[in-house]
């Protein structure tokens, strides 16, 4: 869109590092999608890309172009009210920096409204958020720009209709000229953003190598072509370097998969500037000739990978740190780092799959130590308590380097009615006692978490009264959230003596699953079970499995109806481990240091004295 380069001024609030007239030098990938927007044949455009890759800038260009050249009733839809409030500051700065936009506002920024139509000279502009009253209204819209569609609720209130379908319904009046722009960072396979991308022509950007003219999709890695694309330096043993080394030096290189030539960051930027967007099923031959037929499509979609972004805006050093951090976390049973990389660097949705909990797999984790023993390697103890009518299921876990964990004890403690405070008395000695580590060091629990979902008020009362018994007052009431959460936990401060933690069952159970079932070699991210672990505990640890419901993963009980109490207590312990910072523990030697031999008692000389006077002459002789 040459018009934008000559007429659209970007203020610092909109583009702090690239303020001034719009310049595609730093957003070369954006040229063709801007032409799609100006193409009268194209009806819908879906762009999937990493965080801070320029999607807001693209929406800005489309909005400004439409206001200037093709005004029609327009709506911008953010994921939530908070995001819209932040976006308003940038939109006001954009209008203020461009005379033609201020003319549409009749020279007054306060004519730009939130949640209701702004009456511009040539159009009505609605700025709203997903499922708000303004979005659910029925007034016709010609242009709709949807931001972060992956974060929208999957259906509109009181209906099974998808919000994207509802918005299409509002465009029927403008069917021959309508535009629907959807921009988003990816999240999960099958979510709204992924569905919209798959419904389009799924374009990828093909770029030539400046050395051999080989055209290919610039990506971080390809398991079919190891040793090319992004190549990271490693140690002589083939291990990752430190994150500090990847961040501070050129330890990451892009390598052409054909000639093996290493590209510098700015050679990569120059090659991307010559790239072409090709739809699925169409490729570029070695001679630079398109292979396949590019059919006209009214529904365009494109994936903007992180390596397409200019190095001034996204460095390979930062990408390398994110990649290595994800690999390191994966060894400990955590997928959050790898998921973040795929979403926010490779622009790929995370594909969650079913997970089966098999007793045969879990039995391979049974070791040679016994319950109540603390094996060498344990550096911290956490305790989790699942509360029932008149008994408790208690799991005591010992944590070591990189989330290696030992089940020290899994107990059933009989008591009275847990609505009464007297029933919690047996827990006091348990949560305050020290556990003796393998080197003889006494270690109190680093944290104790107790489920407050079933007996909410009695558990809160117990925590308030007994937090002094636990190290740093870490007697924490927790409950598994029934809603979808993106973070591990959310805390709610009730008063100075109590904070309640709403925790993410999916995230924590996923990590527990990997330590018990996916990890099959002792070491990082592996759970050990004692030799005398009870059969009912084994059954409870296999009581749930993960299934996919309407595109979203969820852990559910198996149909055989077995109890899941040890499973629940164990995933509470995973939260406790994160809370106390188990990931920061250092590595211990393979075996404990030998105990120092006892110092021999000095023997008194004949005729001398014993005790502290041993060896001194006897003055009484």
Outline of the structure:
This protein is of the alpha/beta class and 621 residues long. It has three domains: 2-201, Rossmann fold; 205-287 and 315-344, no CATH class; 359-584, Nucleotidyltransferase, domain 5 (2-Layer Sandwich), CATH 3.30.420.
What is the strand and helix layout of this fold?
Blueprint: H1 2-7, E1 9-10, E2 20-21, H2 31-38, E3 44-48, H3 55-69, E4 74-78, H4 81-97, H5 99-104, E5 117-119, E6 124-129, H6 133-136, E7 143-147, H7 163-169, E8 179-184, H8 192-199, E9 204-208, E10 215-217, E11 229-232, H9 243-248, E12 252-255, E13 262-263, H10 265-273, E14 276-278, E15 283-284, E16 290-291, E17 299-303, H11 316-331, H12 336-344, H13 359-363, E18 380-387, E19 391-399, E20 405-414, H14 425-432, E21 435-436, E22 442-443, E23 447-451, H15 456-466, E24 475-480, E25 489-495, E26 498-503, H16 505-518, E27 527-528, H17 535-541, E28 544-549, E29 552-557, H18 565-580
Parallel strand pairs: 3-8, 3-17, 4-6, 4-7, 7-8, 18-23, 20-27, 23-24, 24-26
Antiparallel strand pairs: 1-2, 5-6, 9-10, 9-14, 11-12, 12-13, 15-16, 18-19, 19-20, 21-22, 25-26, 28-29
Helix pairs in contact: 11-12, 16-18, 17-18
Question: Could you characterize what this model shows?
Answer:
This protein is α/β, with parallel strands linked by helices. The chain has 3 domains: 2-201, P-loop containing nucleotide triphosphate hydrolases (Rossmann fold), CATH 3.40.50; 205-287 and 315-344, no CATH class; 359-584, 2-Layer Sandwich (Nucleotidyltransferase, domain 5), CATH 3.30.420. The protein contains 18 helices and 29 strands. The longest helix is centred in the first third of the chain and has 17 residues, at 81-97. The mean pLDDT is 91.
């Amino acid at each position: 869109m040459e018009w934008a380069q000559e007429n659209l001024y970007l203020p610092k609030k909109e583009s702090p590092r690239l303020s001034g007239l719009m310049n595609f030098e730093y957003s070369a990938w954006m040229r063709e999608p801007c032409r799609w927007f100006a193409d009268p044949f194209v009806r819908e455009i879906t762009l999937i890309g990493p965080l801070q890759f320029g999607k807001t800038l693209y929406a800005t260009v489309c909005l400004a172009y439409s206001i200037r050249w093709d005004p029609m009733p327009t709506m911008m839809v953010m994921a939530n009210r908070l995001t819209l409030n932040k976006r308003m500051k940038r939109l006001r700065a954009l209008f203020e920096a461009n005379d033609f936009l201020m003319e549409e506002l009749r020279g007054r920024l306060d004519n730009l409204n939130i949640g209701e139509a702004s009456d511009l000279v040539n159009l009505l502009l609605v700025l709203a958020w997903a499922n708000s009253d303004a979005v659910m209204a029925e007034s016709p819209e010609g242009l709709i720009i949807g931001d972060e569609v992956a974060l929208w609720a999957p259906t509109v209130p009181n209906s099974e209709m998808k919000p994207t379908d509802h918005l299409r319904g509002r465009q029927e009046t403008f069917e021959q000229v309508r535009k629907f722009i959807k921009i988003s960072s990816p999240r999960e396979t099958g979510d709204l953003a992924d569905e919209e991308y798959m419904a389009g022509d799924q374009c990828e950007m093909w770029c030539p190598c400046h050395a051999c003219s080989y055209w290919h999709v610039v990506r971080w890695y390809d398991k079919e072509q190891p040793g090319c694309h992004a190549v990271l330096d490693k140690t002589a043993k083939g291990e990752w370097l430190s994150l500090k080394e990847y961040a501070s030096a050129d330890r990451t290189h892009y390598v052409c998969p054909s000639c093996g030539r290493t590209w510098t960051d700015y050679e990569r930027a120059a090659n991307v500037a010559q790239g072409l967007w090709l739809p699925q099923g169409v490729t570029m031959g070695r001679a630079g000739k398109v292979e396949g037929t590019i059919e006209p499509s009214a529904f365009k979609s494109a994936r903007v990978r992180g390596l397409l972004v200019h190095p001034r805006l996204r460095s390979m050093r930062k990408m390398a740190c994110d990649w290595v951090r994800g690999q390191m976390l994966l060894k400990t049973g955590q997928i959050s780092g790898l998921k973040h990389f795929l979403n926010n660097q490779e622009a790929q949705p995370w594909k969650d799959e079913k997970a089966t909990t098999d007793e045969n797999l879990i039995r391979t984790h049974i070791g040679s130590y016994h319950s109540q023993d603390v094996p060498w390697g344990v550096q911290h103890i956490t305790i989790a308590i699942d509360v029932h009518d008149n008994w408790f299921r208690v799991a005591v876990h010992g944590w070591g380097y990189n989330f290696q964990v030992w089940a020290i004890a899994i107990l059933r403690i009989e008591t009275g009615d847990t609505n009464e405070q007297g029933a919690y008395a047996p827990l006091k000695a348990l949560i305050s006692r020290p556990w003796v580590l393998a080197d003889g060091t006494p270690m109190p629990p680093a944290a104790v978490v107790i489920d407050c979902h079933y007996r909410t008020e009695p558990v809160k009362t117990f925590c308030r009264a007994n937090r002094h018994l636990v190290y740093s007052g870490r007697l924490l009431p927790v409950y598994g959230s029934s809603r979808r959460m993106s973070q591990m936990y959310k805390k709610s401060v009730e008063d100075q003596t109590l904070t309640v933690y709403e925790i993410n069952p999916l995230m924590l159970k996923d990590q527990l699953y990997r330590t018990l079932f996916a990890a099959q070699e002792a070491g990082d991210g592996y759970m050990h079970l004692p030799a005398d672990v009870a059969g009912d505990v084994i059954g409870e640890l296999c009581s749930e499995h993960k299934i996919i419901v309407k595109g979203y993963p969820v852990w559910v009980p198996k149909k055989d109806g077995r109890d899941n109490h040890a499973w629940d207590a164990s995933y509470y312990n995973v939260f406790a481990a994160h809370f106390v910072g188990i990931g920061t523990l250092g590595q211990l030697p393979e075996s404990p240091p030998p105990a120092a031999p006892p110092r021999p008692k000095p023997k008194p000389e004949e005729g001398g004295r014993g005790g502290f006077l041993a060896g001194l002459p006897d003055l009484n002789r």
